[in-house]
Amino acid sequence: MTRSFVAKLAPWLFVGPAVLSVVVFLYGPILASAGLSVVDWNLLSPQVDFVGLNNYRSLLANTDFQLSAWNTFLYCVILVPAQIVLPLLFAVMIHAVRGSRMERVYRGSLFLPTILAYSVAGVAWSRLLNPINGLFNEVLVFFGFGPSRWHTDPDLALLCVCLVTFWKSFGLNMLLWIAALANVPDTLREAARLDGAGPWRRFFSIELPLISPTAFFISVTTVFSVLDDIVGVVDVLTGGGPAGRSSNLLYFLWQQGLQFFQFGPASAVAMVSIAIVLAITCAQFWFGEKRVHYQ
Amino acid sequence: MTSTASTASNAALRRGAVHLMLAALSLLTLFPLLWMLSAAFTPNELITQRAFRLWPEEASLSNFRIAGEKHPIWWWLFNSVLTASAITLGKLAISLPAGYAFARLPFRGRRFLFGLVIATMSFPAVLAIIPTYIAVVKIQAFDTYSAMIVPSIPYIGFYVFYFRQAFRSLPDEMFEAARIDGCGIWKQFRDIAVPNVLPAIAALSVISFMGAWNIYLWGQLVLEDSARKTLTTGIAMFADVDGADTPWGPLMATSLLSVLPVLGLFLLAQRYIVQAFSSGTVEK
């Protein structure tokens, strides 16, 4: 009797801490954000005023918000394809030299930036990009071009953040692609080769369809990671500037909430971001699931 | 005959070209780090002299000394080790049993709860940050180790997912004998399951340690006293990086100090890390 009772209870004890911790620390705060987004309150005021959708309304009129939303779109358009296609290209190259002694060296070198902190990545790059005594400008000047202001130039800041973010995080997707390519049976490649298919044909007709589950996984996770990764890089490199030109929605949230302590508007941004993230995920599952070929 | 010979030499040529491209790519990727390494050992007053030099003319450790005089960098190192270890232990302690239960113990609501936990894999961390920050301030935990450690633990979606895979791949027979011997659920978990997934545990410990070591935004927020900061958050205390008189030497020396431990771990465990990141994630 007691024994079977314990056996029934055991699974709950095993999953309890994990479930409780994600509910309390992840789902809870998101619900709390929903609450905060409809009130006017800061840490100091004793009074909590319900303001309905005012925070959302004032967001829509806020030009900084509009700019960061537009930038979020730009970041996605530039970085998501780059973070998917270029790592695949690198993976194909590494796959081509598999078994050689250098394989590990290449893989390790290209993956290395992934293990760094954002602050370290920012510091490492700021010395290259520094507008006064950075290396990039020395090279430009050496070849007779004027010095550039790089990440302090309103028109280049976003691209500089893209560059550093890409450098910092392409390694993970590359690893996933390498693993996927290694899972394609060599007999299939060989069969296609004997049938006269060239390398391009083999890639598009054999490998690409067989790695499509990975493609789906990567395309879903990359959208999130791009949005998230940028926050750290932006904070170190540009602080969202100049004039908000390199900010994105999550960084805007961070600034509003934790630098200016505007909890209401910041939480409204959180809600808008969650809605966007959910919409993108649903769209990906809607379009992606049907096209993926599972072995 | 000639055609096969020429195809073979073509293939060799192509392989050589790929090697060349990969080598160039690797160097390009490593360059910002090599550049940092060189600056860390170049006396600060020589760094901004306008001559490109990757190898320091007169290598010295003075930057580490200067950084140590300005900021408590050795405390930062200690704090980084402490918080990263605590976060890693916490993550393992809650995600190992959960992964086991989701893999091997049938119970009602298993699918739902599993979905609930792994859905957090794709949460941008920033989304939960404001209420968590308010809670930290309200319970007066601001600027404590706990404020850094506890809220960093629950990001366990990937861990639970990965451990579930590992436990699922163990053969049933392994547990059958123990069950006949009257081993309870806890003993089966502790004495049979866990010892058989040690590579998975090793891989995720390293991944977790590296991730926790690199926590930046949250640390920036809740650690204020300089003596409580970690290396990656302390770095931001150096002067701004766009100016003309950034103390590059000490800054790069401190950055290097923060890179070395994770780099060492990475080199030691590269095989496991690569495996952990690339297996399981695509399984339907």
Automatic annotation (TrEMBL), chain A:
It is a multi-pass membrane protein. Keywords: Cell membrane, Membrane, Transmembrane, Transmembrane helix, Transport. This is Carbohydrate ABC transporter membrane protein 1 (CUT1 family). Its main location: membrane. It comes from Mycoplana dimorpha. It is found in: Cell membrane. Coiled coil: none annotated. Residues 69-284 form the ABC transmembrane type-1 domain. Belongs to the binding-protein-dependent transport system permease family. One of its GO terms (cellular component) is plasma membrane.
UniProtKB/TrEMBL annotation, chain B:
Gene3D superfamilies: MetI-like (1.10.3720.10). One of its GO terms (biological process) is transmembrane transport. Pfam families: BPD_transp_1. It is a multi-pass membrane protein. InterPro entries: MetI-like, MetI-like_sf. It is found in: Cell membrane. The chain crosses the membrane at residues 20-41, 73-100, 112-136, 142-162, 197-216, 248-269. Its main location: membrane. One of its GO terms (cellular component) is plasma membrane. Residues 77-269 form the ABC transmembrane type-1 domain. The keyword Transmembrane helix applies. Keywords: Cell membrane, Membrane, Transmembrane, Transmembrane helix, Transport. PANTHER family: ABC TRANSPORTER PERMEASE PROTEIN MG189-RELATED, ABC TRANSPORTER PERMEASE PROTEIN MG189-RELATED-RELATED. Belongs to the binding-protein-dependent transport system permease family. This is Carbohydrate ABC transporter membrane protein 2 (CUT1 family). It comes from Mycoplana dimorpha.
